[in-house]
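Input set for joint prediction.
Command: fold jointly, output C-alpha cells.
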Amino acid sequence: MMLEYFVDLLKISLPILYLFTIFLYGLAFFLDEPFGIRNRTRFLIGTLIVHIIYLVSQTLLEGHPPTTSVFEIMSVVSFTIGLAYVYIEIRTKVKETGLFIISLAFLFEVISAAFVKTEVHVNPVLKSSVLGLHVGSAMLGYSALAIAAVYGGLYLMMYHEIRSSKFGIVYRKLPDLKTLERLSYASIVLGFIFLSVVILVGYVWLPKTIDDFSYSDPKLIITDIVWVIYFFALLSKRLMRWTGRTVIIVSMVGFLLTVASMVVVNVFLPSFHNFK
Amino acid sequence: MFRLTAVSINHRTANVEAREKIFYSSEEIREISEKLNSVARESMIVSTCNRTELYMIPASTPKTHDELYRLVREGKKLADGEVEVGFETYEGFEAVRHLFAVASGIDSLMLGDIQILGQLKEAYNTGVELGTVGSLLHHACQMALKAGKRAKAETKISEGAVSVSYAAVELAEKIFGSLKGRTALLIGAGETAELAAKDLKPKEIGRLFIVNRTLERAKNLADEIGLGEAVQLDALSEKLPQAEIVISSVGGSGYVLTREMVAAAMKGREINPLLIIDIGVPRNVDPAVRKVSNVFLNDIDSLNMIVENNMQMRRAEIVAVQRLLDEELNDFMKWYNSLEVGPTIKMLRDKIERIREEEIDRHKGKMKDADLQIVEEVTRSLVNKILHEPMTNLKNAENGISMVDRVKMLKSLFGLDEDEKS
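C-alpha cells >
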C-alpha cells in the first residue's frame, strides 16, 4: 500500500520536475538568468534520479519492468531521452539545446502520467530478462532518433534564420550549423546501433518465446524498414559524403516515418507483438 | 587617508586627434618617470589610442587636478594652446573603481574591448620596472586585472562581434563551425577586404583568394597579410566553385556576382553550403543569388544588425559588470582598511595610556607605594576593559558601518587626526 502511494506520488511529481527543468533551461536560454545557467543541468540530473527511482519502484510494485503498455513505455522513453541528452550535454558542453529536448521528454512523461495504469498481471514473457535488453535497446534507440530529429529541427530553424538574415535569439543562442549536424548525426548513429540490437535480439529470442511468431508481422516489417532507411542514410553519408541539410532532412523524414508507422501498426494492425 | 588621484584624458573628453597627441609611448613614460618620482610616492601612466591616464599618490603636499593635468601635458612637451582637451579626475577609492572599470572594458570606446587588459598589464609592468609602482598601486592593479578577467569570464561584456568585418567571420563560424582549413575568397582589395582578411587569418583558413580588378593591389594585400593568392577579377568564375566563404567589397555599380555565376559554381557541390557576404555599397551581388539552393547571401545590413544585436547584449551586461566591480572594490577597501585599523588602534591605545600615566604622575606624590601599585593595576585594567569593546567592534566588519567610516569616526572622536599631524 505504501509503495503504491509512493509510486503515485512520484508519478505526479515527475511532470512537475520536468516542467521546472524546462523552466530553468528557458531562463538560461531566453534571459541568460544566472540561476538557470547554474542549476539547469543539476536539476535535470536530480529529475532523472527521481525518474529512475520511480521506474524501479514501479517494477517492484508490478513485479515486472514497466514496459507492458504504451503509456508505461512512454515514461521509459522520457527517461532515456533525458539520459541520452545529459550524456550528449556533458560530452559536447552544448547546453542551449536542452530546452527543446527536455520538452520532448516532458511531453512523453505527461502523457504517460495521465494515462498509465498499474499492470500487475501480465504475460509471463514480459518477466524475461532478455526482454529488458530488447525493450531497453528499443527505448534508447528510438530516444536517440527522437533527439536526432530535435537537433534536425533546430538545424532547420538556424538554417532558415541565417538564410532570411533575421539573427534573432536562435542565431545568438544555438550552436553553429556544423555542430547541430554533428549532434544529429551522432544521435542517428547511436539510435541505429540500438535499433540493430533490438532487431538482433528480437529475431533470436522472439521465435523461441512466442508461439504465434511471424516474420510477416507488421511491427517487425516496419522496424526493419526503419532500420533499412537509416542504414541507407548512413551509408549515403559515408559514400556520397552527404552533409548539411541533406543529412538533417533524411534524419527528420526517417523519424517522422518511424512515428507514423508505429502509430498505424499499434492502432490499426493486428500483431503478436502485443503482450497484453 | 587614501590619497590616490587619477587624471584621465579619454574618448569622452578629447577627440581622436587630441588623444593621438597626448599618447605616451613607453620611452616617453620612462622619460617622465623621474619627474613623477620627485612629486609622487607612487605613480603609473596608462596610455592607449583611446585614453591617457595618470594614477598618482602624492609624496607630501597633494597636487591639484590642474597641476596633475599640466604634468601630463609637460611630459609630452605640448605648447600652450597646442592641444586643448578636457579631463576627468577621480579621488581615493573612486580612482580605484575607475581603474577597475577601465580593466573590465566598460569604460572603453568599444564597449567590452578586451585589448585594454593587456595594455593595462603593460602599463603596470613598466611602472614596476621603473620603480614608480609601490605596494598600493601594485595591489590596485592586481585587483583591476582580476576584475577585468572576471568580467570577461563571468559576463557577456566581450562576447559577439562588434565590427562589420568580424561579424562576417562570426557569421561564417555559425555556418561552418571552425573555419580551419576552409577556403575563402575576397572580392576587392580595399580597406574592408584587408580587415576581413586580418580577421580570417587567425581562424587558420586553408586557402584565401584575393580577387581584384587590379592584380597588383590584390598581390600587395596578400603580401601584407602573409596569406592569399591574387586573382584577376576576370577569373572569378574559375575560383568560385572552390570557395566556401565569399566576402565582396568592391566599388562601382553593377553586380560582380550574378545568379548564373553562383548557380554554375554550385553545380556538383550543391550539398556543401556557400556563404556570400556582400559588404559593398552599392551592392556587388545580385540579390537573386539567395534563391540558389544551399547559398547563404547576407549584405551590409545583415552584418550591421548582428553588430547592433551584440552591442545591445553588451550594454545589457554593464549592470552585471558593475556589480562585479563593486565586489572587487569592496575587497580592495577591506585590504586597505586592514592597513589603517592597526595603526589607529595603536594610536588610541597610546593616547589613553599617556592620559593614564599623566594622571597617575599628577597624584603619585599623595599615595603610598602599595596604594600606587593598586591604582596602577586598577587603572590599567580599567583602560583595557573600556577599550576592549570598541577595539573589537572596530575590527568587526559585520556591523553595517564601513571600516573607513569607523576609523574616521574614531579618529575624530578621540582627536587622533590632530595627534597624527602634530
